Amino acid sequence: AIDSPTGIPLPLSATRPFALHADAWTIARGEYTQTLAELTASGTVNADRVDITNGLLTGDGTRISARGRVTFAPSVDLTVDGVVSADTVRPLYPAMLRDARGSVELNGLRITGDLGDPVVEGPWAFHDALWGQILVAAGAGALRWQGGDAVLRDVKVSVFGGSAVASVRADDLGAGAVEVEATATDLDIARLREAFAPGVTTFNAVAGKLDGSFVATLADDDVHSTGEWVLRDVAWRGSAVGNGSGSATHGLDGEQFEAHVTLAGDTRATLSGALPKDDALDIDISFTARDVAPLAKVFGQDARGSAHGEGSITGSTTQPGVEAQATLSEGAW
Predict the structure, then answer these.
(1) Degrees (nearest 5) of the Cα angle 124, 194, 239?
(2) 104 with 126: CB under 8 angstroms?
(3) Structure confidence by residue, pLDDT tens digits, 47-83
(4) Which of 32, 99, 150, 277 has its CA 20 to 30 A from that of 288?
(5) Assign residue 37 a region: left if phi > 0, alpha if psi is -120 to 50, beta otherwise?
(6) How far is Cα 20 from Cα 17, in angstroms, rounded to an integer?
(7) Are strands 246-253 and 239-240 parallel, antiparallel or unpaired?
(8) Using the 8-state DSSP alphabet, how is residue 277 labeled?
(9) The pLDDT of residue 275
(10) What single DSSP character describes residue 190?
(11) For residues 244 and 263, what is the distance between their CA atoms, to the nearest angstrom?
(12) Which letter does DSSP use for residue 276 in this model?
């Protein structure tokens, strides 16, 4: 419904005040729909433009205010403030992100340009966002969205006891792939395990910190990722593994992964196979150690020498089984 208090006829070029009210709006993309509760706006209108002085859109967990100008060229120049619930824009998410929860704060977001293909750009922030088992305490950054493609710059988040700075690109938002490049600092290994492998009790005794960088592509239900990491303060059941330092790389291609880890005593291990599915494990392992003493000490043993071997990890995440063959050279136990 549109109501104007003007009571006398005016020429088309004249400026008229207006008030607009809608009880329900629906956002739809494919099979996903989201209904918003109410839209109100007031301002002035004439033959070539609408000036909005007070626009308000509300929904479940969402409140967005807007002000600015829409011209009938057609073009738009709006400034938007408010809070947007994840539920409101869920139809725009890639399939694998559609269980995300939380809300985003907008403070001075600009919508400018051609009304049919505007540029959306400006700052945003969020708090206590949840995706699967991943809780992001806080985050902020800048957004640019045009033609269905979105770029998030300088995304700073607090996560897994540490922090990360990332850039994110989404092609054909809601249907295409999402590309992420990030640098992380001081991530807690225990929190990572709880998020990505909560059922793998074998690693409950592992503690430490991670610094590193990675790239990832999320498309439909697939994730492709590579990364390089520095390990600090690595311990097993409270005992430091060597001097507690190490390094690692990872590669993830859909449901297949490969990881290379270097720990104290120049011990190198490679793990590869399928990501745990339905708690089932099927992982190949290989390792070499120039000196087994640092690792043996962690388990309360006194051993020395070099070793190499290979094997597999099977069974379930709660009851894994390890089979391996190893060769110890010039060693003693």
Answers:
(1) 120
(2) yes
(3) 788 899 999 988 878 889 999 988 877 788 999 999 8
(4) 277
(5) alpha
(6) 10
(7) unpaired
(8) B
(9) 78
(10) H
(11) 8
(12) P
